[in-house]
Structure formats: C-alpha cells, structure tokens
Amino acid sequence: MATPTSSSSARQACSELAHTLNVDFASRRLAEALDERDPLKPLRSEFLIPPRKSYVPDTSNPDTPSIYLCGNSLGLQPAGLRTLVNEELDAWGALGVQGHFRHPHNRDWVTIDDHVVAESAKIVGADSSEVAIMNSLTANLHFLMVSFYRPTSTRFKILMEAKAFPSDFYAIESQVRFHGYDPADAIIEVAPREGEHILRTEDITDIIARRGDTIALVMFSGIQYYTGQFFELEAITAAAKAKNCVVGFDLAHAVGNVPLSLSAWDVDFACWCTYKYLNAGPGGIGGAYVNKRYANAELPRMSGWWGTDPATKFQMDNIFRPIPGANSFRVSNPNVLATASLLGSLNVFAKTSMNALRTKSQLLTGYLEALLLDLGPNSGFKILTPSDPAQRGCQLSLLFDEGLMMPVFENLERNAVIVDERKPDVIRVAPTPLYNTFVDVWTFVNVLTEAIGVARSAA
Amino acid sequence: MATPTSSSSARQACSELAHTLNVDFASRRLAEALDERDPLKPLRSEFLIPPRKSYVPDTSNPDTPSIYLCGNSLGLQPAGLRTLVNEELDAWGALGVQGHFRHPHNRDWVTIDDHVVAESAKIVGADSSEVAIMNSLTANLHFLMVSFYRPTSTRFKILMEAKAFPSDFYAIESQVRFHGYDPADAIIEVAPREGEHILRTEDITDIIARRGDTIALVMFSGIQYYTGQFFELEAITAAAKAKNCVVGFDLAHAVGNVPLSLSAWDVDFACWCTYKYLNAGPGGIGGAYVNKRYANAELPRMSGWWGTDPATKFQMDNIFRPIPGANSFRVSNPNVLATASLLGSLNVFAKTSMNALRTKSQLLTGYLEALLLDLGPNSGFKILTPSDPAQRGCQLSLLFDEGLMMPVFENLERNAVIVDERKPDVIRVAPTPLYNTFVDVWTFVNVLTEAIGVARSAA
Ligand SMILES: Cc1ncc(COP(=O)(O)O)c(C=O)c1O
Ligand SMILES: Cc1ncc(COP(=O)(O)O)c(C=O)c1O
Fold this sequence. Notes:
Two copies of one chain form a homodimer.
Chain A: H1 7-21, H2 28-36, E1 47-48, E2 67-68, E3 77-78, H3 81-95, H4 114-124, E4 131-133, H5 137-148, E5 157-161, H6 166-178, H7 183-186, E6 187-190, H8 201-211, E7 215-221, H9 233-242, E8 246-250, H10 262-265, E9 269-272, E10 287-290, H11 336-349, H12 354-373, E11 381-383, E12 396-400, H13 405-414, E13 417-418, E14 420-422, E15 426-429, H14 438-458
The structure holds pyridoxal-5'-phosphate (2 copies).
One pyridoxal-5'-phosphate sits between chains A (136-138, 165, 167-168, 221, 225, 250, 252-253, 273) and B (304-306, 331-333).
C-alpha cells in the first residue's frame, strides 16, 4: 500500500483494497484485511491491551481486548516494561547504593538515563547530545524558559497559541510575571479566525513577521491537545528565526506520534512528556531538547549537580562546569524506576521507525476519518482536526451536537471503547499505530454510530 | 533503657547493661544483648538487607546479611514496596487511563500523592497542607527559591554554610545570578573556625544578627552531608526571623533521621529527597514544605496545572487559582511508580515514630562512637561529627590519617561492610535505627580495626 499523502489517499488505498477483495468499504472484512496487510501488526503483541472486563463488569467476553483509543492521554503498557522495573527493584534489594556503579544489567544508576537518550533523540530528530531525560514536562518548560526566555525592554513578548494546554499557559504567564512584565501585555495569543477551529500557519507567521521585533520567544505546542492540529513547526521556526526570536515547542502530543526533525528545523528548545504516545506510564519522566548551538553557550540557568561535569562534581570548588549539551540542564539524579519504564517503552520504538509508524498512522487515521465522514452530514458531530494528514497526528477530535457527547461517551465506555472526553462537547479518538488495529477503528465507528442513535432517541 | 541525652549517656546505658550481664563493653555479647532489648528490632524484617554475596563473590556465607551502614546515601528497600509498585503496573495494564480515577486499590493517580503527604508531614513536623510530594530535591530548591528568594537592592544576600553539598551551591549561585547579582557579593558562606570542622551555632546567629538586614534568605542544610552536623535549626530560624530574613532548609540528610518540627520552629520552606533515610529508592520523588502562613499568599512562582484548583483546571479561562497550601507548588502530575515507592517506605515509618527512632538512633550511634573512641588516640582516624548527640543524626564521619582511607574502605567492602567514602580521607558510617543492629555496629568496628591494621602494615 502506498503512503497516503492526503486524506483522500488513505481512503483511496482502502477503497482499492475493498475493491480488490470485493468487500464493502464499511465492512469489518476490509478492516481485517487492512490488519492482515499491516507490516507493524506484530508490535501490538508488545503491549498489554486492557481486557473488556476492566470496563464492563458483566461482559460475556471478559478477556477480549477492549478498544483502547486513548494513547493521547495515557499510552498502554509495553509488556517488557515490568521486567525492567523489577530488575531495578532486584538491583536495589541486592546491592543497595552499589547499584549506582555496579549494576547487574549494566544500567549503573549514575548514568541510567544514558540508556534512554539515543532512542529519544531519534524520535524527536535530534543528536543525542541535544536531548536530556529529566524531571517532568511542566518543570522542563520552566527550566528551559529560564534559559531561553530572556526578555529585554524592547523585546519581551511571548507568542503562543490561544487555548493552549492550561499548564503551558500557567507556566508562560508565571515566567512573564517573574520578569516583572504584565501577561496581558507580554503574551500574544494567536487564535483561529472567526468560525474556524484550526490555526492557519500564515496567521502565525504573519504575526511573527509583523511583530517579531518585540517577541522574545515563540512557544507553541507541536500538536494542539484539543483540536489535534499538528502545527507546521518548520515554517514557524523559520519565521521566528527570520525575526531573531527564540523558538520552543511543547511536544506532549507530538512525540512518538509524528516524525520530528528538531535539529534540521533548527528549533532552539523543546520538551515533552513520555506518558502519552511514548507509553512510559503515568507521570513518566520528561524529556528536553536543546539545540547543539547552545552546547557550550553560557546560558543563564537554574543549575544542579547533575548538570555539571561528573569528574569534578565533588571537587568542592563551587565551579559549575556544564556538561556540553542538553545534559547540563539536569539538576537532580533521575528516578530509576521512571527511567527503566521509559527504557521498556523505547525498546519497542527501537523495533520500528517514526517513518514506518507515520505511514501506518496516516492510513489508520485516514481510514477512521473516511468511515466517520461516510456517516454523512447528519452524523451528530463534526471533525475539528484538519483533514490534511500532514497537519495532524493520529488523533481526531469530534465536536458533538449539543448534549450528545456525554451520553455517547458513556455508551462507548459501557461497550469497552475507551476514548477521551473534553467537556462540554468533544471526544478525542487516537488510534495509535503501535498497538491499535483497523478492526479497533472499525469497531469504534460502529459502536459510536449505535451510541449516537441511542442518545438521540433518548433525547 | 533511658534516652541518652549526651554522648556519655549512650555509653553509660551500654556500660550498665554490660555490667549487669557481666560481659565486656567491647564484646559481641553486649551488642547481641542490646539488640535483644531493642524495641524497634522487628522493623529490620521490613527491609531487604543485601546478602554478603552481593559484595563478596567467594564468601563462605553467601546469604548472610551484609553490614549495610550507608542509609545516608541510599536507604535499603522496604520489603513491601515491590508489591505496591507492581500493583501500579497491574492497574496501568488493566485499566490504562482509567487508573487516574478508578484505581483498584483506591490510589487514583490524579490524587496518588495524597497517600504520601500525611506521613511525610508527620516526619518533618508539619501540617499536611504544608507538604507537597513532587519533583526532585534540587528542582524543589529552585521552585521554592523562585518564591522565597526575593532580593531587593538593599537586601539580596543569601547566607549558607561553606562547603554545602555541591548541588545546593549551584542552585543558590544560579538563583543569585538569575536576579542579576554577583555570587561573590551576594552569597555569604559561614565556615567553621580555623582548625575546627563543625560550625558553631553562635557564629551563624552572630552573622545573622550583624548582617541580617542585608540578608534576603538564610538557606542551610538540616544535617551537613560531610560532617554529619545537625544544625540547630530552631535557633537559626529564630535568629533569621528576628532580622526578617526568610529561612529555608535542605533536609536531605535530616528527614527520617532526626525529629523535625518545621511548623513549630516557624521555618518558611524546606525540601528533601526520599532516597536516603526515607528509603524510597534511587532518585526517589522529592518533598517540599511551605509554612501555612503562605497558604493563601500571593507568591511569585513558576506555576503549572497541578498547582491550580483541580475543579477549574480545564475551565480554559487562564486563571491560576492556587490550591491553598504547599500543593500549589506542584507543577506536573506526579510519577506514579515513584509515589508508590515512597508509599511503600512510609508504610514502615507509620509503624513507629520519629521519637522512637531517635531514641534508638542515639543509643546506636552513641554505642558506635564509644567503641570507636575506645580504639584510642592512635586509632588512625578522628571523628568529625559532633560528640553532642543533639548536634548529629545517626551518621559519624571519620577523618583518616593520610593514605589510610582508601585501603580501609576497600577492605571493609571485601568484608561486605558497606559504608560511604568521600575522597581524600573521609568515611561516613550511618547506622540507621530502622534496619541496623547493634551487632552491625560491633561488626563494623571490628572489621575496621582489622582493616586499619592491615593498611598500616602494608604502608
Ligand atoms: C544535601 C543534598 N542536597 C542536594 C542533593 C541533590 O539531590 P538531587 O539529585 O536529588 O537533587 C543531595 C544528594 O545527595 C544532598 O545530599
Ligand atoms: C500539551 C501539554 N502540556 C503540558 C502538560 C502537562 O504535563 P505535566 O503534568 O507532565 O507537566 C500536558 C499534559 O497532558 C499537555 O498535554
């Protein structure tokens, strides 16, 4: 099957297969055939798929896998992760402090994060020296803004998307206040045009072109958590650079979801969490990228011992000698269980590539979109997410007609179909290429259709 | 046995027992008798004590417990912790995202840190509302200094101990620079007097009295990591308050080691790690205390969504409504495995009290000190740590004659006696009352004596 490069090309690829097999586009048989032809199919067995009984107490098929389409919120557990976590408990139990430098599995705790840097760097399109695994997402936003938001009296503004994820807004606002500026003055929010849900890249780059001289930092998410829009990070970066603005991205919903090329795009900094598409578990350890241009730069920062040259860490001369690269931003020794969890997850990513995942993802989400669109104009919802596959990841956000969303959501759950709701009216559906199947998508659409019917007749 | 209130009272209590039993003070029999009479003895079985074979490959007693005296660096693993960690993996595997609000063990992830706050608060002598479990130690130092180091043109200095733990120095120095001050000017370090190792409280309070008007923040460790000195936090706090200085403490080596009364002392803020005496595992989640006086104060801070009123978290009105109390300082959702680990550890603390632990600790460390002192003036080392039990926790720091330390340290290790070295000449020994025995201490002293003999004859 060819890589779909537009919405219609996923539909077309699926259509062609339906035609070849002589089955209906909307048939389960097509979904099954798509799964049979999926080169990434074996990866699903690397994950623990919650069984139906977890959500539906009196189900007749208790051990059948549920339809889990919620990797945008919390990714599923890689099956190999438990062993790695327990190996760390074993090492601690057996060795105590010596686990730091004499680890039975060669994951000495003093350098355990080294084992998760290279694969993380591959996933975000960066050199290993540009990536540090540390802290949590919002903490990393702060530590990086301390270094990269350097307002001056003429250039102190931050450009961001309107309706950003709340934590990002709070983080940005508090940074602005910390420097003594008024958020109302210092924060420029770009909103979609009247009646639209999606930001136009030209509207972003246009503001940068017009007001860039006053903008210290352009700070966007990679993928908008609510709409699923994948911002054109390369174009935003280029526009920001042209006006000498620093540019940083929150990749919470982008990492492990879409291919990224942070180095090639020349992004200044970025950070992410690992509990969504990276499947490292609830509250997973965070990630940070800092462009290698800054590897030896004297940046203002909030420092800690884990960022200084380890050889002189206890020289007690009070001289902070930043490790060249992103690791200089680490402040503390990392949590070992959280790092082992991430390793368990990245071991699965190492079996494929972001490009292979993207190919499947575009087909899978395109198939979902086609099935949803085929429900017709009176389906009860519309899709907020861009129809251009290049402008989205795996998630589609469905905006329901008033009053429909909650009953539909609850009905889905009663059928062990797990998606994510944003009150008042949105359901987010995220078929992830690592563990979701075309049959998952097909089942979702069928249960959804029924749920909408039930909700409407009850209304 | 009475609580020893001075060095000599521990010796005296042990002496009396030796006399009653008609055994030598230096005999193993006395150590055994002290263990038999130890009311906290059953707690040792709550821990995984590394076996000799972990350190000595060809030992004849491979499964005999080693002598682990290194809780000052990494505490041992509570036996019940593994179950809790694996329960979280089970919950994640079974439920995916629904673990956040429908947890099989009633530890919903959205509020999982609630389960570790009350016991943490008890351990540091605070109200639950004054404690947040979050991030890591150095990160917390930064987040708290952002709020509590508020320099002005006349009052911008930070008073700290000379030779503080490197991370604390880096953190403080970088905060000072962030505000545009020169560390050489803004940091006042208090050092021991010429020829002394221990800071005199009067020297600290004296500087505060004389220079307090220029001091924005008094920032000390609770127990000095190198010397083991337990600073007189109450007196330091009182002196700082008298001059309207903000006062904060890094409790890395104090928490779970000595009783603390942060609220009663009226300390402004504090933070700690949980991997030393709190036994929560390598890189364990950090803790923070913020005096309840600030519960509803409008503080400058670096904010995140986990610090805002959860009820309005997704109201998308961009208004940060700080949760009253320390939880307003949380920026991110917490790591679940790290939080479960800490819970596994605090479950053991819940079986005793800091006062009971302190009583045993003073006897255990006093016994260690007495045995060491009895080696005489030509022992090859001297004890850096204060002899006054009120001025130390469980740790004793031994400063060896030149060239002795490394061979002694290596010999100890070959005998499965695990302590901690600080080059060039110091060994730190930390008998912890939760899991160490009097026989551990006795064995250490005997192996040490032999090791010193061997090192000397090889020299
Ligand atoms: C006194 C003190 N401060 C700070 C730290 C740094 O801890 P972390 O790496 O958890 O930030 C330590 C670690 O041992 C410490 O002992
Ligand atoms: C876009 C975005 N930013 C920030 C956060 C906050 O994450 P954390 O709690 O890990 O700091 C999230 C969490 O879902 C997010 O989706």
